Amino acid sequence: MEAPPLTPSYSSTSLLIRHKNPSSVTTFSRSPNFKNRTKFSIRASSSADSVVTLLDYGAGNVRSVRNAIRFLGFEIKDVQTPEDILNASRLVFPGVGAFAPAMEVLSKTGMGEALCSYIERDRPFLGICLGLQLLFESSEENGPIKGLGLIPGTVGRFDSSNGFRVPHIGWNALQIAKESEILDDVGNRHVYFVHSYRAMPSDDNKEWISSTCDYGDKFIASIRRGKVHAVQFHPEKSGDVGLSILRRFLYPKSNVAKKTGEGKASKLAKRVIACLDVRANDNGDLVVTKGDQYDVRENTKENEVRNLGKPVELAEQYYKDGADEVSFLNITGFRDFPLGDLPMLQVLRYTSENVFVPLTVGGGIRDFTDSQGRHYSSLEVAAEYFRSGADKISIGSDAVYAAEEYLRTGVKTGKTSLEQISRVYGNQAVVVSIDPRRVYINNPNDVQFQTIKVSSPGPNGEEYAWYQCTVNGGREGRPIDAYELAKAVEELGAGEILLNCIDCDGQGKGFDVDLIKLISDAVSIPVIASSGAGVPDHFSNVFTKTNASAALAAGIFHRKEVPIQSVKEHLLKEGIEVRI
Ligand code: 1PR
Questions:
Q1: Residues 578/568, Cβ–Cβ less than 8 Å
Q2: Measuring from atom 7 of ligand 1, which residue has the nearest CA?
């Protein structure tokens, strides 16, 4: 997968090939998929042992891969020319974006042919995600589109008709098919996947396969031949396990003993997410805050913003404590333009240097015109968040307006922030955050909205409720219910739903199971249950009674009432698969 369609104007300057005339040592030309083949020259490698060559063709966020490589003590040399590929002493190719535009760039720049030559010479290579898929013959993603053709087989889309949610997002288990050195420490532990397309095992490609993964059907999770490796999952986002995979690739001769046997991974794990609501306090410092039903001010005479800690420190702590993801919500983003909010971007940059699980950031993603009349598109805002280290962005208010318009006209304009960002960065990178408030009613026929019979009656004995969507941090109710919104945003390109509930937020009395069941049954993308967690039992309750893929909590973690590990241990005891 999956995302940024690379229009020619999108290509970064790093893609421009500088045609040099180096003194040739060897020339290569190959690959049936390249009609106008170029001849490349190779100079003796001068790369020092501490240098990793990175093929970043400018299509999206590879900051996490860079951070992980640097964290492991290596410098990065960016590929500027096909010769840089051929001269690399080790090459990492974190493919991002959609298959077709990636192939187009590789073909146009001559990088594809250089890659094929490099791999055929059995030079150290690690492809990640799309960097694995491109090695195959073709992909069905907006295709069929021809790939590099090094590995027999076609890349196809997951089938969501059998109840499996697409994109496949989360921590899943590997079945090791053969010795692969870089997977030596994985044992029975989970690794992080995020993709909608996958390559399937067959007799023709079985000699390449080093591990598979089950998600509806068995797909190729990694390949290995000689020094050539590629993985469908994201080692740079797979915590300690992922770092050890990268370490074994970067230090192939290390004699570190295998750490197999740990963990109990067998299938896609339910995720536990730590959420940090962030805003400036009255002194202008960026703090982690937490509301009661979205009111984040202390109930004191001073009425100051509740301050529960520093964003970077807390995020790092939650990573160490075992959070499967960390979310930042810039809760005043609706009124303070995020690109003016440089501290928030700085928070992301610092966090992503040391936190190797997925990071989501939300707040203020919309078109904006500043006081000087300069227009910023939501795509620019999102791009800045991605560049600063976010893996996913979350859209709140703007998604509500987009869904309202779509339901009113029945037309997908392609111009909403949701559509544009998901088209460029892929559905899997776009979360829609829903902030509904319960509206109790006596008779479902009294309203035009999707109602449910509630488990606990309302204050006046009402047996039914509908969930009214809000914007601007819960300040304004809109004429659309959470059910309709969820279905509309799925159609518009959301890859995941973060489902809050204003009534439950900060109450510690448990998630709104009625609401979460309603929404997680209505859509086929993953749903994150949020608001109201108070004790570990609330997590097992939401996972057993609904189809939520993840559960998010804030207050109990910030106030150190319940450690993340206690939640995980409890879930494990209840027979619910989690990443340990
Ligand atoms: O509308 O695109 O600018 O996005 C704004 C984002 O900020 C939305 O995702 C919205 O949910 C969030 N937000 C706005 N105001 C508040 C507030 O609290 N005043 N926070 C707010 C939302 C809800 C959860 C919270 C859970 C878990 N916070 O994220 O973390 O309810 O809390 P708990 O475990 O303590 O119960 P836009």
A1: yes
A2: 331
